[in-house]
């Protein structure tokens, strides 16, 4: 049955899979994208069959809303995995382009929220917001939203409208790091059974409201594995090392471990290269300067070869080609490491971070410890074990691949068309 579906989408300007999912959905149903006026440019290039409407719900200059927003930021109920929430918020704060005054104010609010009682639920916050209901939604049959919720005021309008509201939990780490999960949503769609458990235990969502759909992010791996094998980008054997953060202090700690890794390889495997993929959302490339002087380190050149977001699909495909031909993949706990588990190259989660407090906290986030930090040789806890893991990968030991199979088994791969049919 063809429906008219309103979509409140996050990440339209940065996530190619969301754009493609919306376009595929528009081939089966009528789709209307709702965006704020300032974000209309994010819809450029969407297929012509996708309608775009402006959101008229915003009244952020309303004094009551400003007070309520301030109170919610400080006293808002957090997921039970609050450690992840604060890591994410500090990360966003340190990467935002803010004036000195605003940065100080935001830091004070965030620090204050760590110590005060948290008693305002997301639903209580939404119910008390004053919003304009001018936005045309009467012709929409149901709504599909993506985490993180794009616009709280319009979302409150949708929940009050009585229409069906479905929320797709876009990423595997959203249940443990976000506080915008409403119990008034009709249905949540998640990647797998583990994420369903997370919504129940961390966000107190009723199990009857949660359905398993699959991952839009992983559809590119499905397509890649179904297609023809592509030649390697490099003419030499290599390990692929993925940087995980865009926070300067953490980047310096990452670089220190990568330098030591390169030195070990130079001594023991002189013909092997270490290809380092710098973090995509971190622009201070000079932070990686210590790597530039190492003869066996190759900096992945995807940032110079492609323009983001124009070449978003090419960037994804380039990454998958390099994963598929690597002797092994090393990371500190990221979606990159999860993606790599679907390929033959054994994955190492480098938990050799005890001497780095901040990086240790990053590696031991909730989702990493639950889904990636498993009892395999691929998770070294000290430098000796780390070197042994690398040696096992290079020797292509079969037991190093068991970890990949276990991680990959948590989420079944689908094509985008399959996911649209399953919604």
Overview of the structural elements:
There is one protein chain. By secondary structure, the protein is an alpha/beta fold. Helix 1 crosses helix 19. The longest helix has 21 residues. The chain has 3 domains: 154 residues, Rossmann fold (3-Layer(aba) Sandwich), CATH 3.40.50; 51 residues, no CATH class; 182 residues, Rossmann fold. Helix 14 links the parallel strand 11 and strand 12. It is globular. Strands 3-2-1-4-5-6-7 form a 7-stranded parallel sheet, with helices on both faces. It has 19 helices and 12 strands.
Question: How many separate helices?
Answer: 19
Tally of DSSP β-strands: 12
Strand order of the largest sheet: 3-2-1-4-5-6-7
Low-pLDDT segments: none
Taken as a percent bin, the fraction of beta residues is 5-15%
* Top-tier CATH class of the largest domain: Alpha Beta
> How many separate domains make up the residues?
3
Shape: globular
What is the H level of CATH, i.e. the homologous superfamily of the largest domain?
Answer: Glycogen Phosphorylase B
Q: What is the percent of helical residues?
A: 40-55%
Question: N-to-C terminal Cα separation, in Å?
Answer: 12 Å
Sheet having the most strands:
7 strands, parallel
CATH topology of the largest domain: Rossmann fold
CATH architecture of the largest domain: 3-Layer(aba) Sandwich
Structural class: alpha/beta
User: Which value, in Å, is the CA radius of gyration?
Assistant: 22 Å
Summed over residues and divided by their number, the pLDDT gives a mean of 94
């Amino acid at each position: 049955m063809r429906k008219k579906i309103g979509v409140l989408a996050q990440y339209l300007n940065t996530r190619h899979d969301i754009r493609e999912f919306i376009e595929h959905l528009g081939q089966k149903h009528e789709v209307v994208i709702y965006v704020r006026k300032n974000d209309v440019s994010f819809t450029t290039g969407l297929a012509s069959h996708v309608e775009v409407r402006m959101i008229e719900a915003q009244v952020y200059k309303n004094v009551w809303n400003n007070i309520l927003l301030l109170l919610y930021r400080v006293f808002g109920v957090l997921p039970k995995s609050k450690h992840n929430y604060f890591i994410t918020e500090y990360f966003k704060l340190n990467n935002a382009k803010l004036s000195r005054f605003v940065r100080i104010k935001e830091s004070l609010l965030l620090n204050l929220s760590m110590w005060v009682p948290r008693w305002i639920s997301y639903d209580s916050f939404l119910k008390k917001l004053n919003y304009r209901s001018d936005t045309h939604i009467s012709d929409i049959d149901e709504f599909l939203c993506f985490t993180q919720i794009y616009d709280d005021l319009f979302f409150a309008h949708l929940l009050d409208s009585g229409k069906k509201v479905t929320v797709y939990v876009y990423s595997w780490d959203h249940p443990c790091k976000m506080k915008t999960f409403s119990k008034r949503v009709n249905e949540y769609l998640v990647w797998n059974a583990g994420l369903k458990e997370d919504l129940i235990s961390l966000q107190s969502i009723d199990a009857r409201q949660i359905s398993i759909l699959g991952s839009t992010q992983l559809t590119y791996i499905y397509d890649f594995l179904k297609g023809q094998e592509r030649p390697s980008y490099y003419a030499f054997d290599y390990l692929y090392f993925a940087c995980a953060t865009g926070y300067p202090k953490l980047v310096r700690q990452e670089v220190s471990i990568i330098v030591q890794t390169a030195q070990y390889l130079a001594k023991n495997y002189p013909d092997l290269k270490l290809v380092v993929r710098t973090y995509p959302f971190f622009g201070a490339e000079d932070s990686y300067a210590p790597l530039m002087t190492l003869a066996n380190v190759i900096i992945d050149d995807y940032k110079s070869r492609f323009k983001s977001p124009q070449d978003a699909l090419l960037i994804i495909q380039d990454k998958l080609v390099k994963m598929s031909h690597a002797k092994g993949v090393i990371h500190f706990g990221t979606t990159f490491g999860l993606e790599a588990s679907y390929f033959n190259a054994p994955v190492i989660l480098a938990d050799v971070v005890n001497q780095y407090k901040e990086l240790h906290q990053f590696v031991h986030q909730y989702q990493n410890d639950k889904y990636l930090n498993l009892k395999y040789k691929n998770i070294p806890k000290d430098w000796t074990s780390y070197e042994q893991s690398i040696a096992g990968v290079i020797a292509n030991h079969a037991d190093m691949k068991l970890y990949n199979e276990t991680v990959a088994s948590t989420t079944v791969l689908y094509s985008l068309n399959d996911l649209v049919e399953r919604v």
